User: Fold these one by one.
Assistant:
Number 1:
Amino acid sequence: MHLAALAYRLSGHLPSLRGLAASLVGVLIAPVAQAQPLPDLAGLAGHTVFGATVESHAVWSVYLGPDGRAQFTYASGGTAEATWRAADRNVLCFAFDDSGEETCKRGSAYGIGSGWSTVYPQSDGQWHPYQEDPHGSSRIFAAWPGRYSHDPASFTGDLRESFPGRAYIDLPGQGIYGVEIRPDGTGAILNDTGPRNTESAEYGARHMCIHGECLDLQISDGRLQLLKRDGDRFEGHVLYLAKGRFSPPAIPDEPAGHASAYDDGPAVIYPRDGSTQIIQPVDFDAWERPDAVRVDFKDGSPRIGGRVLVPVFRPDHATIVAVTKGYALIRFGGPDLPENCVEAYRWLWVTGPDHGQMTPPFGTCAETAKVDVTWQGGIILATITPDSGAPGTFRYFPGSKDMGEPLDVSLVSGDAADIPWMAEDDWKAIEAREAAERRAAEEARDALARKEAKAREERQRAARLDAARRTAEPFGRIAGGNLFDILAADSVRVAIGESSEGVLLTEFLQEQFTEATFLPENRQAGSTYIGAACGSAGCKELRLIAIYDAETDAVFGILTSGATNLAMFGALDWIDGKTVATGLDAVSNEIQREMAWQSRGER
């Protein structure tokens, strides 16, 4: 057997030495509204493609006619015509005259937009760019079906003249994303990842906000730069403001019936029976209406579909005073309110057949003479007029970027009472907590059982080792003797002393092998003998094998603990692998069986 093969055989049976071994686009909020990235350029026939140069952010557009004619419009107001063809899945080629020469552009993924790089064909069928920038000298930020003319100066100096609509923003190195402000008071960050969600939106002359997270606009080096408020983090450059371009309203139309319609938003229903109401939830993500559910009260706490939402909320009395969409305004009173607080209000958002969310209490704390509820775009305004004192108008945006957050109610004008309120768990949170407590208890029981089983196994293992332990001493002969007869040979003692850590190894063997838990008879193959022993703590902790030639006094030994070779002595080059292979296999198998018995009581 070759030396390397023998080393492999040793490593197979005796473990050998082991070596020891910025942000995303649209970072204002997460998750964000989803906007599909542009399709491949070849699929944009009949679309107007909008782009902006990297150097100056000058906006241009091209209409890709289905007839193969393209109409370019540049930031300067100039135009050009060309024929166009889809030369590849994401490559368009334009011919501006009859010379046969073409200018070819390739798209590349860039947020919800695309690159626009000049390329030329090679003989290998690949397209190679002219520019070093892989995305080219322009960025495509949108492609709309139909023919449109763009506004070369979409920013007039006041964002209020550009919204409601959509802002296309380039975050260099990250890609194009969008901020959409809708006329119903909602908005979204448009990104190529993440689920659709609805947020409250607000804007002014030089800022835009989604769910209270604001970007401030400033002009720097002739570019429209966005910085995150209260942090001055750069969030990109505004490339284009598309006034009037936005998704459908976040809140579907209210069906007719007993509703009193308002021009500026959906209707509000005032039920005659203030204790029970049929309410139809609104699924914002699916943009559909689930089946209507019954909302009533048990012990003052609202029930949805017959299930109490928040068991700890048990006021003395509660009444539904207004209903709209999936929302009910509840007036209540009871001991949980501060002293001298007669009554307060909470919005109940019905989100499913047996679940919803409630806002913290709000109001004036005085007895109410009248409540007026109106919509202002996508925001609900509740004006509470007390019998005496000034009314208070409260703003509620029906929706939240995080369904686990308390719903947001804020004072718009007038008086409001400070109503402290403890955190509450609804039935879902209670069941989740109880399930977590059960899992924790089960895990604790399992951990205790594992600990007890391990202790029991350790006691059994210790008993087996005690029974196997014997004095480590030679018999006085190699043939029919054991490992310690081999170690007693003069040439072996010399080999151990001449090893790299000879003195330490000698002392270690004398200290650690006063007793052995496994000490088989030496195996013989011709003049070669193979001996083995396990230390007093067991075969897993310490093993020693020695191969010795009685005619030449040559020896090789290896000391192993666990999966680590602690030391070796002697040499391997004298060993005839064919002669020792059978004996080495037999010794190794014996050690493995002994290790299994010592550890688990199995042979």
Number 2:
Amino acid sequence: MEQTHKNIRKDKPSRTKWSESAIKALLSFLLEHKDKLEELKPILNPKSCIDSCEFSLRKDDDLNIQENPQVEIPYVIPKIGRKHKNKYKNDDANANLEDQNRKKSKKCGNNLGDILQNWIEQQEVRQIELDKKREEKEKKEQEQRLELLHMKQQSDMILFNILNNLSNSLNSLNTKQNQLNQVDKTS
């Protein structure tokens, strides 16, 4: 049977799976260049930065709209997948704060700060484990060296005793040979 229909959506981008080493490299790069990235943030995405110049621009725009009632107020297209709320209906600040608190209570693991903090904590734990393993390995190697030294000393003592016995045996053999030679000369 031929498969005539495939369930592949070409308009949706595929997710890339990152290896652990690639993630570590990216995080270390981000940590190293954090200051430079903070400087570039307003340039790359000015909407994500909240500073006084943005507020002053908004106030100027509001004043221009109030002064020129003929100017049309631009319609803001709501984001897809979110429920659009009319900003002019809900001027109540408390309702807005409650919505923000509700949104903040949802924990999504995509916060870069949390990811970096978790990665740093993991690196610290790994470093501590590596230090412990290295200390254990050094201690084990030192114990092995001491044991080898002790065995070498024992073997040296045994060899010394064997050499001493051999030397004594040769001396006694030599003296007996000399005595026999003397007896042969006299006879």
Number 3:
Amino acid sequence: MAKSTGGTILIALIILFTFPFWIGLAGGLFGILAGLFGAIFGIIGGLFGAIFGVMVAIFKGIFSVLFGWSGNWGGHWNFFPSFQMNGFTIVAIVILILLLIRSRKAN
């Protein structure tokens, strides 16, 4: 019996002509998977950023009330007279006053 090469040639031609389609499809699927993987990392990073941002905002609010740290780096002009002192200076003045009162009581 003679072997038929027509079927083999047909399969080879189909593979040859559809090869770019399969490569494009595989590349597209790889791109989708890589994009989803990157999106997962982005969501996790965004959640960590939001959590730490809320924590920092809470601490900033506490320290701005206690120590007078307003976070104003000179970009805002305040035309109203205001008195704001660093908390460490206030604590030093209070300690100095307490020491003076105690030294007067000892004398």
Number 4:
Amino acid sequence: TILMLAVMSRLEKGGTYFSVSKVSSALQKQQITNPVANVVVHTLAYLLFAVYTLPVLLIVLYSFADGAAIQTGQLSLNSLTLEN
């Protein structure tokens, strides 16, 4: 946070200004009364969750995999070790 403040201060001295909200307010939960819209919104939310977490999970998985197994695309439990 301190590093970011230092960078932002330096940029603002050069004439580039960034606006950041200084007031924190809690978000209020909104009820979706339409059942179809509720399903669509929840489906999209879970899809976005999967899209954002899948790369991180694959990086963690590949960090335990053998290089040859990654190249060939043949991942199995035998190729996942702590030695890699």
